[in-house]
């Protein structure tokens, strides 16, 4: 699995919703896979839900909020972008992780989830950098391919 860390500048961190929308659109343009945005903050989920609908004045990013932890994505027609606090069963696609936990902890609790790529966001603050280092070490131990980008 490929893991990409996006180390955000102060400007990008101040417009985190805009960056997440931009990264989401880029991921959709470059791949036919679904994108799961893991969110453990209800306020962020609500504001991101609105931001994805309003990203462009003449378009939107189709998405769906998942609320049932028992959702098996093989048996439902879903939008290309999913917002959730958990990883659905049988998920195979990309993950944009906004939580403090590494994605492999979500995978361990989910039946047959096998993300192909993970996008991690690191804000320019002490807490986020510390969490990012923890995630990096966790992924490194598992032998994942790691890259990082300063944005």
Question: What does this protein structure show overall?
Answer:
36% of the residues lie in helices and 22% in strands. The chain is an alpha/beta fold and 151 residues long. The protein has one domain: Rossmann fold, CATH 3.40.50.10110. The chain has a seven-stranded parallel beta sheet, sandwiched between helices. Helix 4 (103-108) links the parallel strand 5 (94-97) and strand 6. Helix 2 packs across helix 3. The protein is globular, with a radius of gyration of 15 Å.
What is the fold's blueprint, element by element?
Blueprint lengths: L1 E6 L2 H5 L1 H15 L4 E4 L3 H12 L9 E3 L15 E4 L9 E4 L5 H6 L8 E6 L3 H16 L3 E6 L1
Parallel strand pairs: 1-6, 1-7, 2-4, 2-5, 3-4, 5-6
Helix pairs in contact: 2-3
What can be said about this structure in brief?
By secondary structure, the chain is α/β, with parallel strands linked by helices. It is built from five helices and seven strands.
**CATH H-level homologous superfamily name:** DNA polymerase III subunit chi
CATH arch. level architecture: 3-Layer(aba) Sandwich
Query: Can you tell me the overall shape?
Result: globular
Helicity, in percent?
Answer: 25-40%
Numbering strands along the chain, what is their spatial order in the largest sheet? Answer: 3-4-2-5-6-1-7
The quaternary structure here is single chain
Low-confidence stretches: none
The number of distinct helices, counting runs of at least 4 residues, comes to 5
Strand percentage, roughly? 15-25%
**What Rg is obtained from the alpha carbons, in whole angstroms?**
15 Å
* Topology, number of strands: 7
CATH topology heading: Rossmann fold
Distance from N terminus to C terminus (CA atoms, Å) equals: 22 Å
**What composes the largest sheet?**
7 strands, parallel
The average pLDDT score comes to 89
Q: Give me the strand/helix succession.
A: EHHEHEEEHEHE
């Amino acid at each position: 699995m490929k893991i990409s860390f996006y180390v955000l500048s102060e400007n990008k961190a101040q417009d985190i919703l805009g960056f997440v929308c931009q990264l989401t659109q880029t991921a959709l343009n470059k791949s036919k896979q679904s994108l799961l945005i893991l969110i453990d903050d209800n306020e962020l989920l609500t504001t991101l839900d609105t931001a994805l609908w309003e990203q462009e004045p003449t378009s939107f990013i189709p998405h769906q909020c998942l609320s049932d932890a028992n959702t098996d994505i093989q048996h439902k027609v879903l939008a290309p972008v999913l917002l959730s606090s958990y990883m659905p069963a049988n998920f195979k696609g990309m993950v944009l992780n906004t939580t403090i936990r590494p994605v492999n902890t979500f995978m361990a609790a989910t039946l047959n989830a096998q993300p192909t790529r993970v996008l991690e966001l690191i804000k320019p603050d002490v807490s986020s950098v510390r969490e990012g280092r923890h995630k990096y070490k966790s992924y490194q131990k598992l032998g994942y391919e790691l890259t990082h980008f300063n944005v």
